Amino acid sequence: MQIQQDQNTIIKEVLNCAVESIKGIVPLELTVGRPALLNGSFNHHAIGVFIGITGDLPGRIILDGPENAFACLGEKMFGMPIEGEMVESFAGEVVNMIAGNMGVALAAKGIKIDITPPTIIVGDSKISGFKQAIELPLSFKEAGDYRLVLNIEKGA
Fold this sequence. Notes:
Layout: H1 2-25, E1 30-32, E2 36-44, E3 47-55, E4 59-65, H2 67-78, H3 85-107, E5 113-115, E6 119-122, E7 125-140, E8 144-152
Antiparallel strand pairs: 1-7, 2-7, 3-4, 3-5, 3-6, 4-8, 7-8
Helix pairs in contact: 1-3, 2-3
């Protein structure tokens, strides 16, 4: 029972650090939805940015959203239209910044992680290879809806 409670506390802490990191990177009003448990896989239909996590909390973080939402987010952040391959590049970079800031926030709490370079997934695909993950719906005012998927393979 104590191990599960500790695992839940760790996951809650990681999600809180991820949300705070997003708020620090993206200068738009953010609405965070209710977390949901994913078992084994999920379908992806847009742009997804996959970043591996190593260290005390091995796993993955994925931010998934429509191409037009990432384009709008980029335009809101940089003040100029982002189109074509630049949307994919922007998506990778913004998620890389979020994951990096999340790592700094976790380190301040005594949890050490490192991140892998982002992998950008475009189009319809099925993401699998994990036992369970937490899906967190995110919505930026004027920049669309996304979902953050966090998989932690084992606790600290």
